[in-house]
């Protein structure tokens, strides 16, 4: 064998694919028939396979033509300069073409390879095994069982308490640069763990020592340290600064990875970054929201679909050579999924990058874009190889692929015993368990060929070889000039800080309300304190009030920065993500946040202290005033550094705030006011020397009293009899007074009352600046050291409630026919049967914007009858969720018009509790178990006519129905830790089912984050529910044809909330296809996706256009006339029926807003709240520990201290501090 390269392996050739897909750079893989005559999978048939090089598909001639032969240097334009307004290379043009842009860029760079060196990073992995550890105390903690954690932690430290958990075992693969790998597997199969391992994001994961990963000669350690940012992992969740616009977010990413100035002739980093931002926005359809805030679920901004595209654009702008996308198209239409895959395909083919992508329910057109696919089954690899051969491999093994099933769905279904079907005659020859699948895979010729390719790859790319050196040199050429050689970043520290400062001020500008509210709060507090100490007199009656006022002032100035901890912890996921992408070091963001906070702190300090200073008549000299402000500002900044350091040392907000409370108490107690220095106990006296507040308070007292004379207002003795008494026989009743003098010297008062020396004023300023510098350094060093990574989607149970592990069922349904899961005890039969019809007519929703009134929904009509499953579809932004919110009476914005009736009657106050609404977001109490969450919903929302026993029994039926019995006693947790996506979705559905909705059930995209098999289970569940009489209205993103056919009716919305169809779907979707074809749509392909065909026909997919105005066609159609006629007829009939039943009943219908009495509500909420706190031991023990610390600290501070008036005064202030 020729070891010079794996691309020259000699194997028997096969006929290359004949069909070429012209919509993307690589040819479409050859179509494989679904059920050819299989062969024995345990034999080694003589298969004719192509060599690795022969599987490399060529680019279309339109893209290759500029690269085939030498051409004049002016044929390819600099894509960053002098672009015509209508040029396809101009991202601001309507004619912009991403394909032409990237083709031109690659060709332009190819003219001078030395100036534009290109990096590439394919990789191989051999015998890759990944594991983690589990502790014996991995159960739900509560106040009682937390004590067991102490012993477990001790055993954990010595290693005896660790339980190894295998996550991945024995994986092999090879992905060349320029290729795309598709990862398929059900949730929990290890797809995310494999992507994290490849990208180096291995928090909590450990790689076996005999595992080998080779990034074309670059070791794994070097790849993820020195070259961090070249391999990135993009998780499902979106982490962005909510108060930045889309354009600002992407411009930051582009600048962070931009090459030095004039890398391209005449192009600065600013021009390069702005152009790349515009290209990504135009490619992903984000140009129209450039100036809209990113936002999140609680901050108004772009919707979650566009937010997902922002995440994709940000990762693409990183310029990395290896991209690991973990279900990054979650929640997006199939059209956007396909467009995303095409964009990655172009990037890998022309940019020589490598992409590993995990997708749920990818359409066939997206699957055909990939080069290779790997299938995971419970942490084991059962296939790795060409996408075109994957289906054949398993069909020859003896499985059947249904004609209407995509290849990706077929491959995923093989890992589900309930879904895979076996060809007759192979019932006892096909593998059943993951181990049997692995055995078949590793004895196949496909695996043997992979081993040969891996051996050749290792020979061609040895570690630290020529390619590794070229890779390092190419990366160095794109880094800043004065950056150290082994830095993972493109920018030098100075550039990073400047970039973060610009972003910091952009965030402040976008969130001016918070700044204004903060300033207003400071002004209000200054007025309140100023009124309390208004216009203090200049005599001795104000001495104690002045010292108290200065303490309150220093207390306020010092503690206002404690709220920064909340912001630090909330933004930590964004900072960590950008550090993984090698955008900026956390140090740069930390330092820039200090700089950006200083103007606000200075303004608030000036406003608060100026108002307070002059209202209370403090020392009226310019020197004293500016000294007062200077010390107030410095102590504010110093304590801000302290609080920031605390925030970087804790993962949770509760722990950080608890520590902050302790620090504040210590600083205030030993500042010199509550306990004067000469009265401090010896064992705590050292605190005053490390207390910055003490130095600030001493300086403010010196600034106010030093060198000042206070006339005595109360001489002793006093009274009418002592009016003529000589001053030498009287004395002032203030500390520091001298017999025979009617005035009190402020300097003497300072020395006798506090022990302060006037010459300490500016010495203290130096000490405070040193404190500030120290804690600033501590903050900058500790930032980014602590990760917020969660423990993963591992089920946690209460101690003693973990179910015994059951052997997973791997037996197949040999006949391929459905077997009823529940037999005669089907819980569906026990569900509440519905009889009410819900209808709506001319529903409109208008919201006010800066540019005027915008219509979100435009005259939408429809109905949902009992026993029907209605699909609500439309492109992203069409108003589907808004329509559900309006129909469910959950809309809180805009003006709603139109009519909505229940059985012909207007909705009453009880409507909301009579409907179930499964929203996209998960709103669950994380400390509750699945069963408790369902029981709470049933008890609170079911009719009071049902007994508690009946409600709890109904919950058990819902658990059986949703197949949640295995994890019914598991803790819900938070997204990313606890229940996985599938389990959380089922819980959300179950909570609404447990409420026994009397009218209908709304579901907002319940399958958007699920794999194909789970989506099928959810839709089948909905179908079973409707078969019992439940009315269901469900929004869904471009389902497969098989799923689409399970719905009865379709309501389709175009952009702007304009309806274009409402009616029956029909057998094999014939009804809906006839409507669109009759009105100008091209015929639907026999094997095409009907939902995708509709989206393409109306011009709502990327690159598609429609000459038909479908909303106008619907308005003028005969079908709409029939819909209005049917609505009027239904309303009359339903009103008549309702009137008949109302006449015959003794009691009116139950129309109360809540289903349960107020006492029951209070008790259930009280019980749930107590359970929540009981299962949050960190909160309870923090409170207990804080109380004990306060008591001990105050007790020791005033130990046997009750012998003088000063002691009593100290204790009084101590009680105040305790409160």
From TrEMBL:
Family assignment from sequence similarity: Belongs to the ABC transporter superfamily. ABCG family. PDR (TC 3.A.1.205) subfamily.
PANTHER family linked: ATP-BINDING CASSETTE TRANSPORTER
InterPro entries: AAA+_ATPase (IPR003593), ABC2_TM (IPR013525), ABC_trans_N (IPR029481), ABC_transporter-like_ATP-bd (IPR003439), ABCG_PDR_2 (IPR034003), P-loop_NTPase (IPR027417), PDR_CDR_ABC (IPR010929)
Gene3D superfamilies: P-loop containing nucleotide triphosphate hydrolases (3.40.50.300)
One GO MF term attached to the UniProt entry: ABC-type transporter activity
Span of domain ABC transporter: 141-403, 838-1081
Taxonomic lineage from the root: Eukaryota, Fungi, Dikarya, Ascomycota, Pezizomycotina
Official protein name in the record: ABC transporter domain-containing protein
Membrane-protein topology: Multi-pass membrane protein
């Amino acid at each position: 064998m020729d070891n010079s390269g794996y691309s020259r392996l000699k194997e028997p050739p096969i006929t290359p694919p004949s069909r070429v897909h012209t919509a993307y750079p690589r040819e479409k893989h050859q179509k494989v028939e679904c059920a050819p005559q299989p062969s024995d999978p345990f034999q080694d048939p003589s298969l004719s396979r192509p060599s690795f090089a022969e599987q490399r598909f060529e680019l279309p001639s339109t893209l290759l033509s500029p690269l085939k032969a030498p051409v004049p240097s002016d044929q390819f334009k600099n894509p960053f300069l002098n672009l015509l307004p209508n040029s396809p290379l101009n991202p601001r043009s309507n004619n912009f073409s991403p394909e032409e842009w990237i083709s031109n860029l690659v060709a332009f760079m190819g003219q001078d390879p030395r100036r534009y060196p290109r990096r590439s990073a394919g990789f191989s992995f051999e015998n890759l095994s990944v594991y983690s550890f589990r502790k014996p105390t991995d159960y739900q903690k509560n106040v009682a069982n937390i004590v067991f954690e102490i012993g477990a932690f001790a055993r954990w430290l010595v290693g005896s308490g660790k339980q190894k958990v295998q996550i991945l075992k024995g994986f092999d693969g090879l992905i060349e640069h320029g290729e795309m790998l598709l990862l398929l597997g059900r949730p929990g199969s290890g797809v995310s763990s494999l992507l994290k391992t490849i990208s180096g994001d291995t928090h909590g994961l450990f790689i076996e020592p005999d595992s080998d990963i080779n990034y074309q000669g670059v070791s794994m350690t070097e790849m993820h340290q020195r070259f961090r940012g070249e391999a990135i992992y993009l998780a499902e969740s979106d982490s962005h600064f909510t108060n930045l616009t889309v354009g600002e977010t992407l411009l930051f990413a582009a600048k962070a990875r931009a090459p030095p100035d004039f890398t391209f002739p005449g192009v600065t980093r600013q021009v390069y970054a702005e152009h790349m931002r515009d290209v990504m926005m135009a490619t992903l359809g984000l140009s129209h929201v450039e100036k809209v805030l990113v936002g999140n679920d609680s901050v108004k901004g772009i919707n979650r679909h566009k937010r997902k595209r922002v995440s994709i654009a940000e990762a693409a702008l990183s310029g990395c050579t290896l991209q690991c996308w973990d279900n990054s198209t979650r929640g997006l239409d199939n059209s956007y999924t396909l467009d995303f895959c095409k964009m990655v395909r172009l990037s890998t083919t022309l940019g020589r990058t490598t992409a590993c992508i995990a997708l749920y329910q990818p359409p066939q057109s997206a699957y055909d874009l990939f080069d290779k696919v790997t299938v995971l089954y419970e942490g084991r690899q059962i296939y790795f190889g060409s996408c075109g051969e994957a289906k054949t491999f398993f069909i020859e093994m003896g499985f059947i692929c249904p004609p209407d099933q995509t290849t990706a769905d077929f491959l995923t279904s093989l890992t589900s015993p309930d879904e895979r079907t076996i060809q007759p005659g192979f019932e006892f020859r096909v593998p059943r368990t993951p181990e049997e699948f692995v055995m078949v895979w590793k004895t196949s010729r496909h695996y043997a060929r992979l081993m040969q390719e891996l051996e050749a790859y290792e020979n061609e790319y040895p570690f630290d070889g020529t390619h590794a050196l070229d890779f390092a040199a190419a990366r160095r050429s794109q880094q800043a000039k004065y950056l150290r050689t082994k830095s993972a970043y493109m920018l030098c520290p100075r550039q990073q800080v400047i970039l973060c400062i610009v972003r910091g001020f952009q965030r402040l500008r976008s969130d001016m309300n918070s700044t204004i509210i903060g300033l207003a709060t400071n002004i209000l507090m200054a007025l309140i304190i100023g009124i309390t100490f208004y216009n203090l007199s200049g005599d001795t009656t104000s001495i104690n009030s002045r010292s108290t006022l200065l303490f309150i002032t220093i207390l306020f100035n010092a503690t206002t920065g404690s709220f920064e901890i909340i912001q630090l912890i909330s933004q930590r996921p964004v900072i960590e993500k950008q550090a993984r992408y090698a955008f900026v070091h956390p140090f740069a963001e930390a330092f820039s946040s200090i700089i950006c906070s200083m103007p606000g702190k200075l303004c608030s300090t000036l406003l608060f202290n100026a108002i307070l200073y002059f209202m209370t008549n403090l020392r009226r000299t310019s020197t004293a005033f500016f000294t007062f402000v200077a010390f107030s500002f410095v102590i504010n900044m110093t304590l801000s550094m302290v609080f920031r350091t605390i925030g970087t040392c804790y993962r949770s907000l509760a722990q950080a705030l608890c520590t902050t409370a302790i620090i504040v108490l210590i600083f205030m107690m030993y500042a010199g006011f509550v306990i004067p220095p000469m009265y401090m106990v010896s064992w705590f006296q050292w605190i005053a020397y490390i207390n910055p507040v003490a130095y600030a308070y001493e300086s403010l007292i010196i600034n106010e009293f030093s060198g000042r004379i206070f006339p005595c207002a109360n001489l002793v003795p006093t009274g009418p009899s002592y009016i003529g008494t000589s001053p030498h026989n009287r004395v002032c009743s203030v500390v520091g007074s001298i017999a025979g003098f009617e005035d009190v010297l402020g300097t003497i008062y300072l020395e006798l009352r506090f022990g302060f020396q006037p010459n300490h004023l500016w010495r203290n300023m130096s000490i405070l600046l040193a404190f500030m510098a120290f804690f600033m350094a501590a903050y900058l060093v500790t930032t980014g050291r602590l990760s917020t990574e969660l423990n993963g989607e591992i089920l946690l149970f209460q101690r003693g409630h973990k179910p015994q592990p059951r052997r997973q069922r791997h037996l197949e349904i040999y006949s391929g026919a459905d077997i009823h899961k529940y037999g005669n005890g089907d819980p569906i039969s026990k569900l509440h049967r519905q009889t009410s019809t819900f209808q709506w007519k001319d529903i409109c929703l208008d919201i006010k914007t800066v540019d005027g009134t915008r219509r979100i929904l435009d005259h939408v009509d429809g109905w949902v009858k009992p026993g029907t499953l209605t699909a609500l579809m439309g492109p992203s932004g069409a108003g589907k969720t808004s329509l559900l919110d309006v129909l469910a009476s959950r809309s809180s914005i805009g003006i709603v018009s139109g009519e909505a009736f229940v059985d012909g009657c207007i909705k009453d106050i009880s409507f909301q509790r009579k409907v179930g609404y499964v929203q996209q977001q998960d709103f669950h109490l994380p400390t509750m178990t699945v069963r408790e969450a369902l029981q709470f919903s049933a008890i609170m929302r079911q009719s009071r006519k049902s007994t508690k026993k009946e409600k709890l029994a109904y919950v058990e039926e819902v658990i059986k129905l949703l197949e949640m019995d295995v994890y019914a006693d598991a803790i819900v947790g938070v997204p990313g830790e606890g229940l996985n996506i599938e389990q959380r979705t089922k819980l959300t559905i179950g909570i609404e089912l447990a409420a026994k909705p009397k009218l209908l059930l709304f579901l907002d995209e319940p399958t958007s984050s699920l794999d194909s098999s789970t989506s099928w289970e959810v839709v089948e569940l909905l179908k079973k529910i409707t078969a019992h009489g439940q009315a269901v209205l469900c929004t869904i993103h471009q389902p497969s044809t098989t799923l689409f056919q399970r719905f009865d009716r379709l309501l389709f919305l175009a952009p702007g909330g304009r309806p274009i169809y409402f009616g029956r779907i029909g057998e094999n979707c014939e009804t809906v296809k006839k409507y669109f074809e009759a009105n100008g749509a091209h015929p639907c392909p026999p094997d095409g996706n009907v939902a995708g065909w509709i989206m393409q026909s109306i011009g709502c997919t990327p690159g598609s256009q429609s000459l038909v105005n479908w909303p106008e066609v619907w308005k003028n159609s005969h079908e709409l006339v029939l819909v209005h006629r049917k609505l009027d007829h239904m309303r009359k009939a339903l009103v008549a029926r309702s009137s008949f039943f109302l006449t015959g009943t003794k009691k009116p219908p139950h129309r109360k807003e809540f289903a349960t009495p107020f006492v029951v509500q209070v008790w259930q909420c009280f019980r749930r709240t107590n359970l929540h706190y009981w299962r949050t031991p960190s909160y309870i023990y923090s409170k207990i520990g804080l109380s004990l610390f306060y008591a001990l600290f105050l007790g020791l501070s005033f130990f046997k201290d009750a012998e003088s008036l000063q002691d009593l005064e100290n204790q009084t202030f101590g009680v105040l501090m305790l409160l």
